[in-house]
Amino acid sequence: METTVTRLFKNDEGRVVGALAYTRESGRFIHFKAKAVVMATGGWGRNYKVTSNSWEGTGDGAVLAYDAGAELVDMEMVQFHPTGMVWPPGVRGLLVTEGVRGEGGVLRNSEGERYMENYDPEKMELSTRDVVARANYTEVTEGRGAPTAGSTWISRTSGTTAS
User: Fold this and answer.
1) What's the pLDDT tens digit per position in 55-80?
2) Count of Cβ atoms closer than 10 Å to residue 106 Cβ
3) Number of domains in the chain
4) Which range marks the domain in which residue 12 is found?
């Protein structure tokens, strides 16, 4: 916990055999020796303006692997949580759990239309994250987004929350 890897070490054959890290609390360096290294560093959600990802999700793990010679594939495959707060600015990036949609939350565009009918008429708001995220994106890019921060709304019988 609270340890950041800054470099991977390779042997003469090009195999990764260790890592250099530091602990954030004390600033002490740690040298790890290993027969095998598994990269499980998280994503890079913090590269985006609005995200609910941890502040640590900056993509440094992918960069470490790349610098060590790894072939990176499918880097475009970033999954976004489809519902989160974008307005007002004080709550930007807070997650709105799927439970909100599961308990009757309805996604609406700037025209008041329940647009998930157009993307997954069977599951509607309970569709998979990728389908809901693409639907949100399509509504915004086609001009039916909310006037605040390129978003849509999730609503119940009264009130709205930006998504």
Assistant:
1) 777 788 889 999 999 888 888 777 77
2) 17
3) 2
4) 3-67
103 and 148 in a single domain? The answer is yes
The pLDDT tens digits of the residues spanning 127-156 come to 888 898 889 889 888 988 887 766 666 665
Among 82, 145, 83, which Cα is nearest to 110's? 145
Q: Are residues 161 and 155 in contact, defined by beta-carbon separation less than 8 angstroms? A: yes
d(CA 68, CA 90): 39
Helix (H, G, I), strand (E, B) or coil at 95: strand
Sheet of 153-155: strand order equals 106-108, 153-155, 160-162
161 close to 153: Cβ distance less than 8 angstroms: yes
Residues designated catalytic: 81, 101
Question: How far, in Å, CA of 159 to CA of 163, rounded?
Answer: 13
> Going by C-beta distance under 8 Å and a sequence separation of 6 or more, which residues neighbour residue 90?
none
Radius of gyration over every alpha carbon of the chain, rounded to an integer in angstroms: 21
Residue whose pair of structure tokens reads 């594939």 in the numeric block:
73
Which residues on adjacent β-strands are paired with residue 30? 21
Dihedral sign for Cα 121, 126, 128, 130, please.
positive
pTM for this model (two decimals): 0.62
121 cis-preceded (ω within 30 degrees of 0): no
Half-sphere exposure of 71 (CA within 13 A, CB side): 1
